[in-house]
Structures are given as structure tokens and as C-alpha cells.
Write a structure and sequence with these properties.
mainly alpha; single chain; 136 residues; two-stranded parallel ribbon
Length: 136
């Protein structure tokens, strides 16, 4: 993935108008030869619902919507940091990403410091053990 050459921000009150504008910007970008045929466009969206809606709107306007990446702001900034600072400076995934954070929290809860601490004695650590007899 190449470093973005420019960031364009288009504020508007109506999402439908922004979808039409985005369609024109993407069409001009493809015909202008600024990027390769196989390069994907990046459109930063607020949430995955916005991604789905925008992709549907672009498909309605063009008959198809493809080769468009819709990163969330956090993912976009993380990828940009990796591109600018290098892979050695910035890990591939952020340590606070949901998938990684779950296991980090689990490791802390399973640590001897927590299990032997009297402040946590009222809380049992049973989520790692499977129940031996289930009631049906």
C-alpha cells in the first residue's frame, strides 16, 4: 500500500450528496491516471454501518462498487504510522485492538499476582475451567 499523496475532506449536511460527490471523485481519480488500475481507493468511514451504506450507494450509482477500502479512523492512523515510521518501529497490530486486548486482560487475570492477592479472594477465577457437570 502506497502512502497517500493527499487527504481530501468534504463536509456536508446530507450523506446522499456526499455519496454522489464521492462517486465523482472516484471516477475522476480513475480516469485521471493518478493511480494504477489495481490500486484501491481509501475512504475513511466512521463505522461499519456507514461503510455498508456507502458501498451500497456507490453500487446503485455505478452498477458495482469494488476495489474500495473503508478503514475506520483508528486503523487508518495505525497503517499510516506504520508506513511513515516503518514496520520495525510500529507493530503490525495495535496492542489495544480488541482481539489482542482480550488475551492480555486474560493473562493479567490468570497471573499469580491476581490469584494470590487477598483483595481478589472474593472473586473466583472460573472462566478458564470448564464445568464438569452441566444441568440440562
Amino acid at each position: 500500500m502506497a502512502v497517500a499523496k493527499q487527504l481530501m475532506v468534504y463536509p456536508a449536511n446530507r450523506l446522499e450528496d456526499l455519496a454522489v460527490l464521492l462517486n465523482h471523485v472516484l471516477t475522476l481519480g480513475q480516469s485521471g491516471g493518478a493511480s494504477g488500475v489495481l490500486d484501491s481507493a481509501q475512504v475513511i468511514v466512521e463505522n461499519t454501518g456507514m461503510q455498508h451504506w456507502l458501498n451500497t450507494e456507490l453500487a446503485k450509482q455505478n452498477g458495482i462498487a469494488m476495489n474500495i477500502d473503508y478503514p475506520l479512523p483508528g486503523k487508518f492512523v495505525w497503517q499510516l504510522a506504520r508506513q511513515l515510521l516503518g514496520d520495525a518501529q510500529v507493530p503490525q497490530q495495535p496492542p489495544y485492538q480488541r482481539e489482542a486486548l482480550v488475551w492480555r486482560i486474560d493473562d493479567v487475570l490468570a497471573s499469580d499476582a491476581i490469584l494470590t492477592n487477598s483483595a481478589f479472594s472474593a472473586v473466583s477465577y472460573t472462566h478458564l475451567t470448564l464445568p464438569t457437570n452441566r444441568e440440562v
